[in-house]
Design a protein that fits this description.
alpha/beta, nine-stranded mixed β-sheet, four-stranded antiparallel β-sheet, 17 strands, 32% helix, globular, binds calcium ion
Protein backbone atom coordinates (compact mmCIF):
# COMPACT_ATOMS: atom_id res chain seq x y z
CA UNK A 1 0.00 0.00 0.00
CA UNK A 2 2.79 2.42 1.00
CA UNK A 3 4.56 1.44 -2.22
CA UNK A 4 1.43 2.27 -4.28
CA UNK A 5 1.08 5.64 -2.53
CA UNK A 6 4.74 6.41 -3.17
CA UNK A 7 4.30 5.59 -6.83
CA UNK A 8 1.20 7.81 -6.98
CA UNK A 9 3.07 10.68 -5.28
CA UNK A 10 6.01 10.23 -7.63
CA UNK A 11 3.71 10.17 -10.65
CA UNK A 12 1.96 13.34 -9.43
CA UNK A 13 5.35 15.02 -8.92
CA UNK A 14 6.61 14.04 -12.38
CA UNK A 15 3.34 15.24 -13.93
CA UNK A 16 3.74 18.53 -12.09
CA UNK A 17 7.34 18.92 -13.26
CA UNK A 18 6.32 18.18 -16.88
CA UNK A 19 3.46 20.65 -16.67
CA UNK A 20 5.83 23.17 -15.05
CA UNK A 21 8.26 22.84 -17.93
CA UNK A 22 5.52 23.49 -20.47
CA UNK A 23 3.34 25.99 -18.72
CA UNK A 24 5.59 27.55 -16.02
CA UNK A 25 3.03 26.79 -13.32
CA UNK A 26 1.32 23.79 -11.69
CA UNK A 27 -2.20 25.09 -11.20
CA UNK A 28 -4.42 27.96 -12.06
CA UNK A 29 -2.16 29.40 -14.82
CA UNK A 30 -3.53 29.49 -18.36
CA UNK A 31 -1.29 28.11 -21.13
CA UNK A 32 0.98 30.71 -22.76
CA UNK A 33 0.59 31.57 -26.47
CA UNK A 34 1.85 29.07 -29.05
CA UNK A 35 4.82 31.28 -30.00
CA UNK A 36 6.14 31.14 -26.39
CA UNK A 37 5.78 27.36 -26.32
CA UNK A 38 7.83 27.08 -29.51
CA UNK A 39 10.66 29.09 -27.94
CA UNK A 40 10.74 26.69 -25.00
CA UNK A 41 10.50 23.43 -26.98
CA UNK A 42 12.20 23.17 -30.39
CA UNK A 43 9.71 21.95 -32.98
CA UNK A 44 10.89 18.55 -34.20
CA UNK A 45 8.08 18.00 -36.71
CA UNK A 46 9.39 17.23 -40.20
CA UNK A 47 9.44 19.75 -43.02
CA UNK A 48 7.10 18.81 -45.87
CA UNK A 49 7.65 19.58 -49.56
CA UNK A 50 4.94 18.75 -52.09
CA UNK A 51 5.99 18.83 -55.76
CA UNK A 52 3.38 18.68 -58.53
CA UNK A 53 3.97 18.28 -62.26
CA UNK A 54 1.38 19.39 -64.82
CA UNK A 55 0.10 16.66 -67.20
CA UNK A 56 2.93 14.17 -66.51
CA UNK A 57 2.01 10.56 -67.32
CA UNK A 58 2.45 7.91 -64.62
CA UNK A 59 5.30 5.96 -66.19
CA UNK A 60 7.46 8.86 -67.36
CA UNK A 61 10.38 8.24 -64.99
CA UNK A 62 13.48 6.24 -65.70
CA UNK A 63 12.76 4.55 -62.33
CA UNK A 64 9.59 3.18 -63.95
CA UNK A 65 11.64 1.66 -66.76
CA UNK A 66 10.90 4.36 -69.34
CA UNK A 67 12.92 3.60 -72.47
CA UNK A 68 14.10 7.16 -73.19
CA UNK A 69 13.65 9.42 -70.20
CA UNK A 70 16.48 10.22 -67.82
CA UNK A 71 15.23 11.40 -64.40
CA UNK A 72 18.04 10.57 -61.93
CA UNK A 73 16.79 12.78 -59.10
CA UNK A 74 13.21 11.53 -59.19
CA UNK A 75 14.66 8.02 -59.46
CA UNK A 76 16.61 8.58 -56.25
CA UNK A 77 13.47 9.67 -54.40
CA UNK A 78 11.63 6.65 -55.83
CA UNK A 79 14.36 4.15 -54.99
CA UNK A 80 14.85 5.43 -51.44
CA UNK A 81 11.18 6.14 -50.79
CA UNK A 82 7.73 4.73 -51.54
CA UNK A 83 6.65 4.46 -55.16
CA UNK A 84 2.94 4.02 -55.92
CA UNK A 85 2.31 2.19 -59.20
CA UNK A 86 -1.48 2.52 -59.00
CA UNK A 87 -2.00 6.16 -58.06
CA UNK A 88 -4.93 8.00 -59.69
CA UNK A 89 -6.38 11.47 -59.82
CA UNK A 90 -10.06 11.43 -58.92
CA UNK A 91 -10.72 13.92 -61.77
CA UNK A 92 -8.23 14.09 -64.66
CA UNK A 93 -8.13 17.78 -65.50
CA UNK A 94 -6.12 20.63 -63.99
CA UNK A 95 -8.13 22.79 -61.57
CA UNK A 96 -10.43 20.13 -60.04
CA UNK A 97 -7.50 17.75 -59.65
CA UNK A 98 -5.45 20.43 -57.92
CA UNK A 99 -8.24 21.31 -55.52
CA UNK A 100 -8.86 17.61 -54.83
CA UNK A 101 -5.21 17.45 -53.74
CA UNK A 102 -5.48 20.58 -51.60
CA UNK A 103 -8.83 19.66 -50.01
CA UNK A 104 -8.73 15.84 -50.02
CA UNK A 105 -12.16 15.87 -51.69
CA UNK A 106 -13.86 15.00 -54.98
CA UNK A 107 -15.19 17.79 -57.21
CA UNK A 108 -18.70 16.50 -56.52
CA UNK A 109 -18.11 17.42 -52.88
CA UNK A 110 -15.97 20.56 -52.87
CA UNK A 111 -17.70 22.06 -55.93
CA UNK A 112 -14.53 23.16 -57.72
CA UNK A 113 -14.47 22.32 -61.42
CA UNK A 114 -14.46 23.84 -64.90
CA UNK A 115 -18.19 23.19 -65.34
CA UNK A 116 -19.25 23.75 -61.75
CA UNK A 117 -21.30 26.80 -60.72
CA UNK A 118 -19.23 27.28 -57.54
CA UNK A 119 -16.11 29.06 -56.36
CA UNK A 120 -13.97 27.96 -53.41
CA UNK A 121 -14.71 30.06 -50.30
CA UNK A 122 -12.29 31.25 -47.62
CA UNK A 123 -14.00 28.86 -45.19
CA UNK A 124 -13.28 25.95 -47.53
CA UNK A 125 -9.69 27.12 -47.83
CA UNK A 126 -9.22 26.80 -44.04
CA UNK A 127 -9.62 23.03 -44.46
CA UNK A 128 -6.93 22.59 -47.12
CA UNK A 129 -3.57 21.09 -46.21
CA UNK A 130 -1.55 24.35 -46.61
CA UNK A 131 -4.01 26.30 -44.42
CA UNK A 132 -4.14 23.59 -41.75
CA UNK A 133 -0.34 23.27 -41.66
CA UNK A 134 0.01 27.04 -41.37
CA UNK A 135 -2.54 27.12 -38.56
CA UNK A 136 -0.52 24.39 -36.84
CA UNK A 137 2.62 26.54 -36.82
CA UNK A 138 4.23 25.65 -40.15
CA UNK A 139 5.93 28.32 -42.29
CA UNK A 140 4.23 27.82 -45.67
CA UNK A 141 5.11 28.66 -49.25
CA UNK A 142 3.60 28.21 -52.70
CA UNK A 143 5.57 28.42 -55.94
CA UNK A 144 4.26 27.97 -59.49
CA UNK A 145 0.82 27.15 -60.85
CA UNK A 146 -1.76 27.65 -58.11
CA UNK A 147 -4.31 26.61 -60.70
CA UNK A 148 -7.43 26.57 -58.52
CA UNK A 149 -8.85 29.22 -60.90
CA UNK A 150 -12.26 29.78 -59.27
CA UNK A 151 -12.22 31.12 -55.70
CA UNK A 152 -13.64 34.04 -53.76
CA UNK A 153 -10.29 35.32 -52.46
CA UNK A 154 -8.68 36.07 -55.84
CA UNK A 155 -6.05 38.77 -55.42
CA UNK A 156 -5.52 37.78 -51.78
CA UNK A 157 -3.83 34.42 -52.30
CA UNK A 158 -0.48 35.84 -51.25
CA UNK A 159 -1.97 36.37 -47.78
CA UNK A 160 -2.74 32.66 -47.46
CA UNK A 161 0.97 31.75 -47.46
CA UNK A 162 4.12 33.12 -45.84
CA UNK A 163 5.96 32.93 -49.18
CA UNK A 164 4.08 33.27 -52.48
CA UNK A 165 5.46 33.19 -56.02
CA UNK A 166 2.59 31.75 -58.02
CA UNK A 167 0.04 32.23 -60.79
CA UNK A 168 -3.30 30.98 -62.09
CA UNK A 169 -3.87 29.97 -65.68
CA UNK A 170 -1.36 28.88 -68.30
CA UNK A 171 2.30 29.75 -68.44
CA UNK A 172 4.46 29.88 -71.55
CA UNK A 173 7.95 28.38 -71.71
CA UNK A 174 9.48 31.90 -71.63
CA UNK A 175 6.85 33.41 -69.36
CA UNK A 176 8.40 36.83 -68.78
CA UNK A 177 8.47 37.76 -72.47
CA UNK A 178 6.01 35.49 -74.24
CA UNK A 179 3.08 35.04 -71.88
CA UNK A 180 0.01 36.73 -73.38
CA UNK A 181 -1.54 37.37 -69.96
CA UNK A 182 0.82 39.63 -68.06
CA UNK A 183 -1.20 39.19 -64.85
CA UNK A 184 -0.03 35.60 -64.60
CA UNK A 185 3.65 36.48 -64.46
CA UNK A 186 3.78 39.31 -61.92
CA UNK A 187 5.30 36.96 -59.34
CA UNK A 188 8.22 36.02 -61.57
CA UNK A 189 9.54 39.29 -62.97
CA UNK A 190 12.60 39.48 -60.72
CA UNK A 191 13.83 35.99 -61.63
CA UNK A 192 17.22 35.74 -63.34
CA UNK A 193 16.25 32.89 -65.64
CA UNK A 194 13.84 33.26 -68.55
CA UNK A 195 12.64 29.61 -68.59
CA UNK A 196 9.56 28.61 -66.55
CA UNK A 197 10.90 25.58 -64.65
CA UNK A 198 14.24 27.29 -63.97
CA UNK A 199 12.34 30.27 -62.57
CA UNK A 200 10.50 27.93 -60.15
CA UNK A 201 13.87 26.48 -59.14
CA UNK A 202 15.21 29.95 -58.29
CA UNK A 203 12.22 30.62 -56.05
CA UNK A 204 12.64 27.26 -54.31
CA UNK A 205 16.12 28.51 -53.34
CA UNK A 206 14.54 31.82 -52.33
CA UNK A 207 11.99 30.10 -50.10
CA UNK A 208 14.64 27.96 -48.39
CA UNK A 209 16.76 31.09 -47.81
CA UNK A 210 13.77 32.81 -46.18
CA UNK A 211 13.05 30.21 -43.48
CA UNK A 212 12.59 31.48 -39.94
CA UNK A 213 14.54 29.79 -37.13
CA UNK A 214 12.93 26.94 -35.20
CA UNK A 215 9.77 26.61 -37.31
CA UNK A 216 8.99 23.61 -39.56
CA UNK A 217 8.02 24.47 -43.13
CA UNK A 218 5.67 23.31 -45.82
CA UNK A 219 6.50 24.20 -49.42
CA UNK A 220 4.19 23.42 -52.35
CA UNK A 221 5.71 23.70 -55.82
CA UNK A 222 3.49 23.28 -58.87
CA UNK A 223 5.61 23.18 -62.00
CA UNK A 224 3.85 24.30 -65.18
CA UNK A 225 5.55 21.50 -67.14
CA UNK A 226 5.18 19.33 -69.20
CA UNK A 227 1.84 21.04 -70.03
CA UNK A 228 1.14 21.86 -73.71
CA UNK A 229 1.29 25.62 -73.06
CA UNK A 230 4.94 25.11 -72.13
CA UNK A 231 5.92 22.65 -74.84
CA UNK A 232 4.11 24.42 -77.68
CA UNK A 233 5.64 27.77 -76.72
CA UNK A 234 9.26 26.55 -76.81
CA UNK A 235 9.46 27.88 -80.36
CA UNK A 236 6.74 30.44 -81.05
CA UNK A 237 8.49 32.22 -83.91
CA UNK A 238 9.10 29.15 -86.04
CA UNK A 239 9.11 29.35 -89.82
CA UNK A 240 5.71 27.81 -90.56
CA UNK A 241 5.64 28.41 -94.29
CA UNK A 242 5.84 24.69 -95.04
CA UNK A 243 3.00 23.77 -92.65
CA UNK A 244 -0.42 22.78 -93.83
CA UNK A 245 -2.08 22.41 -90.40
CA UNK A 246 -2.52 24.56 -87.29
CA UNK A 247 -0.83 21.87 -85.29
CA UNK A 248 2.23 21.96 -87.52
CA UNK A 249 2.35 25.73 -87.10
CA UNK A 250 2.56 25.16 -83.34
CA UNK A 251 4.78 22.11 -83.11
CA UNK A 252 6.11 21.28 -86.55
CA UNK A 253 9.53 22.86 -86.31
CA UNK A 254 12.14 21.34 -84.00
CA UNK A 255 12.39 23.58 -80.91
CA UNK A 256 16.19 23.49 -80.99
CA UNK A 257 15.99 25.78 -84.03
CA UNK A 258 15.13 28.46 -81.49
CA UNK A 259 18.45 30.27 -80.81
CA UNK A 260 17.32 30.92 -77.21
CA UNK A 261 17.56 27.20 -76.38
CA UNK A 262 19.60 25.65 -79.21
CA UNK A 263 22.60 25.03 -76.93
CA UNK A 264 20.67 24.38 -73.72
CA UNK A 265 21.71 21.04 -72.13
CA UNK A 266 18.08 20.00 -71.59
CA UNK A 267 16.00 21.92 -74.15
CA UNK A 268 18.46 21.71 -77.07
CA UNK A 269 19.35 18.31 -78.47
CA UNK A 270 18.37 15.99 -75.60
CA UNK A 271 16.28 12.99 -76.82
CA UNK A 272 16.52 14.19 -80.44
CA UNK A 273 18.63 11.14 -81.35
CA UNK A 274 15.90 8.74 -80.15
CA UNK A 275 13.52 7.11 -82.55
CA UNK A 276 10.43 7.64 -80.40
CA UNK A 277 7.52 5.52 -81.66
CA UNK A 278 4.17 7.01 -82.62
CA UNK A 279 1.07 5.48 -80.89
CA UNK A 280 -0.31 2.65 -83.02
CA UNK A 281 -3.88 3.98 -82.72
CA UNK A 282 -2.97 7.62 -83.53
CA UNK A 283 -4.64 7.53 -86.94
CA UNK A 284 -7.68 5.62 -85.81
CA UNK A 285 -11.08 7.31 -85.99
CA UNK A 286 -11.71 8.60 -82.43
CA UNK A 287 -15.38 7.72 -82.79
CA UNK A 288 -14.35 4.06 -82.99
CA UNK A 289 -13.70 4.29 -79.24
CA UNK A 290 -16.21 6.90 -78.12
CA UNK A 291 -19.15 7.54 -80.46
CA UNK A 292 -19.94 11.08 -81.55
CA UNK A 293 -23.17 11.20 -79.52
CA UNK A 294 -21.00 10.69 -76.40
CA UNK A 295 -18.14 13.12 -77.08
CA UNK A 296 -17.48 15.39 -80.05
CA UNK A 297 -13.75 15.60 -80.60
CA UNK A 298 -13.55 18.73 -82.75
CA UNK A 299 -14.15 21.11 -79.84
CA UNK A 300 -11.84 19.08 -77.57
CA UNK A 301 -8.99 19.68 -80.00
CA UNK A 302 -9.61 23.41 -80.00
CA UNK A 303 -9.78 23.62 -76.23
CA UNK A 304 -6.61 21.78 -75.45
CA UNK A 305 -4.28 22.47 -78.37
CA UNK A 306 -3.39 18.83 -77.90
CA UNK A 307 -3.52 17.77 -81.51
CA UNK A 308 -1.45 14.79 -82.41
CA UNK A 309 -0.71 13.79 -85.97
CA UNK A 310 2.11 11.82 -87.56
CA UNK A 311 3.84 14.99 -88.66
CA UNK A 312 4.19 16.41 -85.16
CA UNK A 313 4.04 13.46 -82.76
CA UNK A 314 7.78 12.94 -82.29
CA UNK A 315 8.40 16.64 -81.71
CA UNK A 316 5.62 16.55 -79.10
CA UNK A 317 7.31 13.62 -77.35
CA UNK A 318 10.80 15.16 -77.43
CA UNK A 319 9.58 18.39 -75.85
CA UNK A 320 7.43 16.46 -73.35
CA UNK A 321 10.42 14.39 -72.23
CA UNK A 322 12.75 17.41 -72.18
CA UNK A 323 10.43 19.40 -69.93
CA UNK A 324 10.11 16.40 -67.57
CA UNK A 325 13.91 16.23 -67.37
CA UNK A 326 13.81 19.99 -66.71
CA UNK A 327 11.66 19.29 -63.63
CA UNK A 328 14.09 16.56 -62.59
CA UNK A 329 16.97 19.08 -62.75
CA UNK A 330 15.03 21.47 -60.53
CA UNK A 331 14.47 18.63 -58.05
CA UNK A 332 18.21 17.88 -58.15
CA UNK A 333 18.93 21.48 -57.23
CA UNK A 334 16.33 21.28 -54.43
CA UNK A 335 18.07 18.19 -52.97
CA UNK A 336 21.43 20.01 -53.07
CA UNK A 337 19.96 23.05 -51.36
CA UNK A 338 18.42 20.93 -48.59
CA UNK A 339 21.88 19.42 -47.96
CA UNK A 340 23.51 22.88 -47.95
CA UNK A 341 20.97 24.09 -45.41
CA UNK A 342 21.32 20.94 -43.27
CA UNK A 343 17.60 20.26 -43.75
CA UNK A 344 17.77 17.03 -45.77
CA UNK A 345 17.45 14.56 -42.90
CA UNK A 346 14.15 15.99 -41.63
CA UNK A 347 12.40 16.98 -44.87
CA UNK A 348 9.75 14.79 -46.48
CA UNK A 349 9.31 15.13 -50.24
CA UNK A 350 6.16 14.06 -52.06
CA UNK A 351 6.02 14.12 -55.86
CA UNK A 352 2.92 13.72 -58.05
CA UNK A 353 1.22 15.07 -61.18
CA UNK A 354 -2.25 16.60 -61.44
CA UNK A 355 -3.12 13.96 -64.07
CA UNK A 356 -1.61 12.12 -67.01
CA UNK A 357 -2.06 12.81 -70.73
CA UNK A 358 -3.36 11.16 -73.89
CA UNK A 359 -0.83 11.85 -76.65
CA UNK A 360 -2.54 10.57 -79.79
CA UNK A 361 -3.83 7.27 -78.41
CA UNK A 362 -7.48 6.52 -79.26
CA UNK A 363 -7.04 9.06 -82.09
CA UNK A 364 -7.29 11.93 -79.59
CA UNK A 365 -5.18 13.96 -77.21
CA UNK A 366 -5.52 15.71 -73.88
CA UNK A 367 -7.31 14.83 -70.65
CA UNK A 368 -10.74 14.88 -68.92
CA UNK A 369 -11.32 11.26 -69.98
CA UNK A 370 -11.12 8.41 -67.48
CA UNK A 371 -8.68 6.23 -69.41
CA UNK A 372 -5.60 5.28 -67.36
CA UNK A 373 -3.39 7.40 -69.61
CA UNK A 374 -5.14 10.51 -68.29
CA UNK A 375 -6.20 9.32 -64.82
CA UNK A 376 -3.10 7.48 -63.57
CA UNK A 377 -0.35 9.63 -62.07
CA UNK A 378 3.19 9.25 -60.75
CA UNK A 379 3.34 9.34 -56.93
CA UNK A 380 6.47 9.11 -54.80
CA UNK A 381 6.77 9.71 -51.06
CA UNK A 382 10.31 10.14 -49.78
CA UNK A 383 10.81 10.24 -46.02
CA UNK A 384 14.53 10.41 -45.13
CA UNK A 385 13.76 9.23 -41.58
CA UNK A 386 12.53 5.92 -42.95
CA UNK A 387 14.75 3.02 -43.96
CA UNK A 388 14.03 0.83 -46.94
CA UNK A 389 12.19 1.44 -50.18
CA UNK A 390 8.69 0.36 -51.10
CA UNK A 391 7.01 -0.26 -54.45
CA UNK A 392 3.33 -0.90 -54.11
CA UNK A 393 0.43 -1.71 -56.46
CA UNK A 394 -2.15 -0.61 -53.87
CA UNK A 395 -4.88 1.66 -55.28
CA UNK A 396 -4.47 5.23 -54.03
CA UNK A 397 -5.91 8.57 -55.15
CA UNK A 398 -5.24 12.29 -55.03
CA UNK A 399 -7.67 12.57 -52.10
CA UNK A 400 -5.12 10.62 -50.02
CA UNK A 401 -2.42 13.28 -50.41
CA UNK A 402 -3.76 15.95 -48.01
CA UNK A 403 -4.45 13.44 -45.16
CA UNK A 404 -0.93 12.06 -45.66
CA UNK A 405 0.76 15.48 -45.50
CA UNK A 406 -1.26 16.44 -42.40
CA UNK A 407 -0.35 13.18 -40.68
CA UNK A 408 3.36 13.87 -41.12
CA UNK A 409 2.80 17.08 -39.15
CA UNK A 410 0.60 15.31 -36.55
CA UNK A 411 -2.28 17.57 -37.55
CA UNK A 412 -5.81 16.21 -37.15
CA UNK A 413 -7.36 15.19 -40.48
CA UNK A 414 -10.74 16.94 -40.99
CA UNK A 415 -13.66 14.52 -41.22
CA UNK A 416 -14.66 16.18 -44.48
CA UNK A 417 -11.52 14.87 -46.21
CA UNK A 418 -12.36 11.77 -48.25
CA UNK A 419 -8.97 10.09 -48.59
CA UNK A 420 -6.83 8.07 -46.21
CA UNK A 421 -3.34 8.69 -44.90
CA UNK A 422 -0.84 6.60 -46.85
CA UNK A 423 1.42 6.09 -43.83
CA UNK A 424 -0.99 3.27 -42.89
CA UNK A 425 -0.03 1.49 -46.09
CA UNK A 426 3.67 2.35 -45.94
CA UNK A 427 3.98 1.11 -42.36
CA UNK A 428 2.36 -2.20 -43.25
CA UNK A 429 2.24 -2.85 -47.02
CA UNK A 430 0.61 -6.27 -46.54
CA UNK A 431 -2.37 -5.01 -44.62
CA UNK A 432 -5.87 -4.97 -46.05
CA UNK A 433 -6.33 -1.88 -48.20
CA UNK A 434 -9.11 -0.70 -50.52
CA UNK A 435 -9.71 -2.95 -53.54
CA UNK A 436 -11.48 -0.38 -55.73
CA UNK A 437 -11.41 3.35 -56.38
CA UNK A 438 -14.07 5.67 -57.76
CA UNK A 439 -13.20 8.27 -60.42
CA UNK A 440 -15.29 11.04 -61.96
CA UNK A 441 -15.10 13.55 -64.79
CA UNK A 442 -17.65 16.32 -64.35
CA UNK A 443 -16.16 18.55 -67.03
CA UNK A 444 -18.77 19.30 -69.70
CA UNK A 445 -17.10 22.10 -71.65
CA UNK A 446 -16.15 21.65 -75.30
CA UNK A 447 -18.50 18.73 -76.00
CA UNK A 448 -17.41 16.66 -73.03
CA UNK A 449 -20.01 14.78 -71.08
CA UNK A 450 -19.99 13.58 -67.49
CA UNK A 451 -18.52 10.17 -66.75
CA UNK A 452 -17.76 7.98 -63.75
CA UNK A 453 -15.56 4.93 -63.33
CA UNK A 454 -14.68 2.20 -60.89
CA UNK A 455 -11.10 0.92 -61.16
CA UNK A 456 -9.81 -2.22 -59.49
CA UNK A 457 -6.38 -3.78 -60.01
CA UNK A 458 -7.77 -5.95 -62.83
CA UNK A 459 -10.78 -4.13 -64.28
CA UNK A 460 -12.10 -0.73 -65.22
CA UNK A 461 -15.74 0.16 -65.84
CA UNK A 462 -16.66 3.64 -67.20
CA UNK A 463 -20.17 5.00 -67.75
CA UNK A 464 -20.98 8.21 -69.66
CA UNK A 465 -24.11 10.37 -69.30
CA UNK A 466 -25.92 12.58 -71.75
CA UNK A 467 -25.56 15.59 -69.51
CA UNK A 468 -23.29 18.21 -71.03
CA UNK A 469 -24.87 21.27 -69.41
CA UNK A 470 -22.43 24.01 -68.47
CA UNK A 471 -22.58 25.04 -65.71
CA UNK A 472 -24.21 21.95 -64.27
CA UNK A 473 -26.79 22.01 -61.49
CA UNK A 474 -26.95 19.94 -58.31
CA UNK A 475 -29.68 17.70 -59.76
CA UNK A 476 -27.33 16.79 -62.63
CA UNK A 477 -25.10 14.99 -60.12
CA UNK A 478 -27.87 12.54 -59.17
CA UNK A 479 -26.70 9.87 -61.57
CA UNK A 480 -29.02 7.33 -59.95
CA UNK A 481 -31.84 9.05 -61.88
CA UNK A 482 -30.02 8.91 -65.22
CA UNK A 483 -29.35 6.18 -67.76
CA UNK A 484 -25.81 5.98 -69.17
CA UNK A 485 -25.55 6.73 -72.89
CA UNK A 486 -22.39 4.65 -73.23
CA UNK A 487 -20.36 2.17 -71.17
CA UNK A 488 -16.87 0.70 -71.35
CA UNK A 489 -15.46 -2.36 -69.59
CA UNK A 490 -11.77 -3.24 -69.81
CA UNK A 491 -9.97 -6.35 -68.56
CA UNK A 492 -6.67 -4.76 -67.54
CA UNK A 493 -4.95 -8.14 -67.09
CA UNK A 494 -5.07 -8.82 -70.83
CA UNK A 495 -5.72 -5.27 -72.08
CA UNK A 496 -3.75 -2.73 -70.00
CA UNK A 497 -4.03 -0.16 -72.81
CA UNK A 498 -7.84 -0.19 -72.55
CA UNK A 499 -8.42 -0.90 -76.23
CA UNK A 500 -11.06 -3.67 -76.20
CA UNK A 501 -14.45 -2.69 -74.80
CA UNK A 502 -16.06 -5.83 -73.38
CA UNK A 503 -19.50 -4.31 -72.75
CA UNK A 504 -21.09 -6.41 -75.51
CA UNK A 505 -19.09 -9.56 -74.77
CA UNK A 506 -21.46 -12.22 -73.34
CA UNK A 507 -18.52 -13.81 -71.49
CA UNK A 508 -18.07 -10.59 -69.49
CA UNK A 509 -21.75 -10.05 -68.66
CA UNK A 510 -21.52 -11.17 -65.05
CA UNK A 511 -18.51 -8.90 -64.44
CA UNK A 512 -20.27 -6.05 -66.21
CA UNK A 513 -23.33 -6.36 -64.01
CA UNK A 514 -21.18 -6.49 -60.89
CA UNK A 515 -19.42 -3.25 -61.90
CA UNK A 516 -22.69 -1.59 -62.90
CA UNK A 517 -24.08 -2.27 -59.43
CA UNK A 518 -20.93 -1.26 -57.62
CA UNK A 519 -20.55 2.01 -59.58
CA UNK A 520 -24.19 2.89 -58.92
CA UNK A 521 -23.74 2.38 -55.17
CA UNK A 522 -20.47 4.32 -54.93
CA UNK A 523 -21.87 7.15 -57.06
CA UNK A 524 -25.04 7.40 -54.98
CA UNK A 525 -23.08 7.40 -51.71
CA UNK A 526 -20.69 10.08 -52.94
CA UNK A 527 -23.54 12.30 -54.13
CA UNK A 528 -25.26 11.94 -50.76
CA UNK A 529 -22.09 12.78 -48.80
CA UNK A 530 -21.41 15.68 -51.16
CA UNK A 531 -24.86 17.18 -50.75
CA UNK A 532 -24.55 16.96 -46.96
CA UNK A 533 -21.17 18.75 -47.15
CA UNK A 534 -22.53 21.46 -49.43
CA UNK A 535 -25.55 21.99 -47.17
CA UNK A 536 -23.39 22.34 -44.06
CA UNK A 537 -20.61 24.43 -45.63
CA UNK A 538 -22.55 26.69 -47.97
CA UNK A 539 -20.62 27.08 -51.22
CA UNK A 540 -20.29 30.37 -53.11
CA UNK A 541 -21.62 30.74 -56.64
CA UNK A 542 -19.00 31.86 -59.12
CA UNK A 543 -19.45 34.62 -61.68
CA UNK A 544 -20.10 33.21 -65.13
CA UNK A 545 -20.07 35.42 -68.18
CA UNK A 546 -21.40 33.00 -70.77
CA UNK A 547 -21.68 29.24 -70.38
CA UNK A 548 -18.89 28.23 -68.02
CA UNK A 549 -16.45 31.08 -68.65
CA1 LIG B 1 -2.79 19.66 -65.85
Amino acid sequence: MIFVKTIRRATKLITCIVVLIFFSGCSGASPPPIADKQLETPDQRPNIIFLLADDQQADTLSAQGHPYLNTPNLDRLAHEGAQFNNAFTVQPVCAPSRFAILSGQYERTNGLGFSSPYAVTEEQWTNTYPALLRAAGYYTGFIGKFGVEFYTFRGKTDQKFDYWRAHDGWLNFFPKTDNPDKNTIKSYLDARSSISTEIMSEYIDGFLDSLPEGQPFNLSVSFSAPHSSITSSMYLDADTSACTSDQCRKMGQPANKNPRIADHPVYGDLYRDKNIPIPADLDRDPYYYLPQHVIGHEKRKQWYSYLYDKETNQEHSIRYFQTITGIDKAIGRLLEKLEEKDLASNTIIVFASDHGLITGEYGVGGKALLYDLAARIPLIIYDPRRRGSLRTNALVTTTDIAPTLLSYASVRIPETMQGRKLQTLMDNPDQEWRDEIFLESLTTTEDHTMSEAVRTRDWKYIRYFENSKCPYEEADLNFADQTPVFEQLFDLRTDPDEQVNLVDDPAALETLNRFRDRTAILSKNLTKTSQAYKNSTGLAKRKLTHGCW
